[in-house]
């Protein structure tokens, strides 16, 4: 049975997928996960979940973010406004800009 | 863990669902999250009005996108709240419908014109974002995680709101005057957004001791004034004489709290204001109007296993 492993580096971080292990049950999966994925990288917590229990939808099957122009919903569109007056607004805009670059929108 | 352990350990994102937390902490966190989630719902319903009033297609699209975001934020927050095991999502939503659930003062005032859009979308959202940015450091980890996504999205709301204000204040004189009138109506409500001074706020102290809140109402209100008053002035809005705003010795701004209508504020806090009845009632009626959608989805979900699919 295959178990997907999710590692949290520090308390408060999200658990992110880091690999999988082959184990007969949850207890063994947690043990193997510690050995294979918890030793070298900084680890605060590990989750394991049976691979079969994970559902997936990928970019071949759907258009994430839709198929129409949604520029109206991004901060960078409103370029007559300077976001720097409030750090949280500027930070949000910077995060959105980074996401837009990764999506390939800019 | 007892409450002293919680106070000793309290820090950003310190407590997660795997921790054994005392009831007092879980109740306080539930109260904050439920209030926040309810406010997202009621803010979304209020904002919905602007889609019809918006003067252009672009603005209408942005307004619908914003409502969608707010309802999405509510979903994240109800999730973070129900994990505390004090109240279920159904109980929180039922309480909001029956008038028990509490939410932000600014969302108890029905809106009836486009001039009110920048009041909500720029000033009130800007104030909300001030507070939400500080909640990225709350001690309840699921709350902080929800704030990561909420703050990511909010930048659009605030900038769009400011863009509406810019557009109105650079258009006709009539528009500018109307915007000023509406601003004067909303200004005291915005100042009350952060609640009363610290010593009058009942839950503040405990929430700060256990790390749920990291910044006091007072500090938030003052930083809001320092950032948003210059913005209002930049677009030619005149700050009303009352409530009086003054500069403290350290250069920060503060408000004379006696100039604000706290009777109205506390009536709102009990959901007993005229506008409270109107807003809660209008959401309830809309919920009832789409009951058939929820029912058909439940029917569809519960069908299948034990009952045969309906023939086409």
Give the structural class of chain B. Answer: mainly alpha
The CATH topology of the largest domain in chain A: Ubiquitin-like (UB roll)
Question: Under the CATH scheme, which architecture of chain B would be assigned?
Answer: Up-down Bundle
What class would the helix/strand composition of chain A place it in?
A: alpha+beta
CATH superfamily of chain B: Ferritin, core subunit, four-helix bundle
What is the molecular shape of chain B?
A: globular
Terminus-to-terminus distance of chain B: 57 Å
Number of helices of chain B: 12
Number of domains of chain A: 2
- Can you summarize the main beta sheet of chain A? 3 strands, antiparallel
Total tally of structural domains of chain B: 1
Describe this structure in words.
The complex is a heterodimer of chains A (106) and B (312). Chain A is of the alpha+beta class and 106 residues long. Chain A has two domains: 2-52, Ubiquitin-like (UB roll), CATH 3.10.20.520; 71-103, no CATH class. Chain A has helices at residues 26-37, 87-103, and strands spanning 2-8, 16-22, 45-50. Chain A has a three-stranded antiparallel sheet with strand order 2-1-3. In chain A, strand 1 (2-8) and strand 2 form a beta hairpin. The longest helix of chain A has 17 residues, at 87-103. The radius of gyration of chain A is 20 Å and the shape is elongated. By secondary structure, chain B is an all-alpha fold. Chain B has one domain: Ferritin. Chain B is built from twelve helices and two strands; from the N terminus they run H-H-H-H-H-H-H-H-H-E-E-H-H-H. Chain B has helices at 3-9, 23-53, 57-82, 89-97, 117-134, 141-169, 173-192, 204-209, 217-234, 262-269, 274-289, 291-302, and strands at residues 245-247, 253-255. In chain B, strands 1-2 form a two-stranded antiparallel ribbon. In chain B, a hairpin with a 5-residue loop joins strand 1 and strand 2 (253-255). In chain B, helix 5 packs parallel to helix 7 and helix 5 (117-134) runs antiparallel to helix 9 (217-234). Chain B is globular and about 60 Å long. Classes of the chains: A alpha+beta (106), B mainly alpha (312).
């Amino acid at each position: 049975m295959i178990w997907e492993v999710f590692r949290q580096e520090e308390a408060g971080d999200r658990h992110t997928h880091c690999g999988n292990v082959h184990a007969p049950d949850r207890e063994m999966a947690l043990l193997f996960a510690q050995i294979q994925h918890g030793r070298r990288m900084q680890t605060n917590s590990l989750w394991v979940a049976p691979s079969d229990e994970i559902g997936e939808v990928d970019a071949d099957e759907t258009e994430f973010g839709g198929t129409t122009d949604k520029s109206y919903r991004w901060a960078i569109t409103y370029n007559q406004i300077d976001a720097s007056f409030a750090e949280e607004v500027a930070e949000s805009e910077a995060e959105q800009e980074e996401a837009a670059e990764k999506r390939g929108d800019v | 863990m007892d409450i002293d352990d919680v106070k000793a350990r309290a820090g950003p994102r310190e407590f997660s669902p795997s921790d054994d937390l005392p009831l007092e902490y879980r109740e306080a966190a539930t109260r904050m999250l439920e209030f926040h989630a309810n406010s997202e719902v009621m803010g979304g319903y209020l904002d919905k009005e602007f889609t019809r009033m918006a003067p252009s297609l672009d603005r209408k699209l942005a307004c619908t996108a914003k409502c969608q975001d707010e309802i999405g934020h509510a979903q994240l927050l109800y999730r973070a709240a129900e994990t505390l095991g004090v109240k279920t999502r159904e109980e929180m939503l039922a309480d909001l419908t029956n008038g028990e659930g509490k939410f932000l003062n600014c969302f108890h005032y029905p809106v009836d014109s486009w001039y009110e859009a920048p009041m909500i979308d720029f000033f009130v959202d800007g104030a909300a974002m001030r507070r939400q940015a500080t909640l990225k450091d709350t001690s309840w980890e699921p709350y902080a995680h929800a704030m990561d996504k909420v703050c990511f999205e909010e930048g659009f709301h605030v900038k769009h709101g400011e863009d509406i204000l810019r557009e109105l204040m650079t258009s006709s004189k009539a528009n500018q005057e109307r915007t000023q009138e509406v601003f004067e109506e909303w200004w005291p409500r915005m100042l009350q957004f952060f609640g009363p001074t610290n010593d009058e706020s009942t839950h503040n102290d405990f929430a700060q001791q256990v790390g749920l809140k990291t910044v006091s109402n007072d500090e938030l209100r003052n930083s809001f004034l320092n950032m948003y008053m210059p913005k209002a002035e930049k677009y030619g809005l005149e700050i009303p004489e009352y409530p009086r705003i003054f500069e403290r010795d350290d250069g920060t701004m503060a408000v004379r709290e006696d100039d604000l209508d706290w009777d109205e504020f506390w009536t709102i806090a009990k959901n007993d204001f005229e506008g409270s009845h109107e807003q809660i009632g209008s959401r309830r009626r809309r919920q009832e109007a789409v009951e058939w959608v929820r029912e058909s989805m439940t029917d569809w979900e519960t069908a299948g296993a034990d009952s045969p699919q309906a023939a086409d």
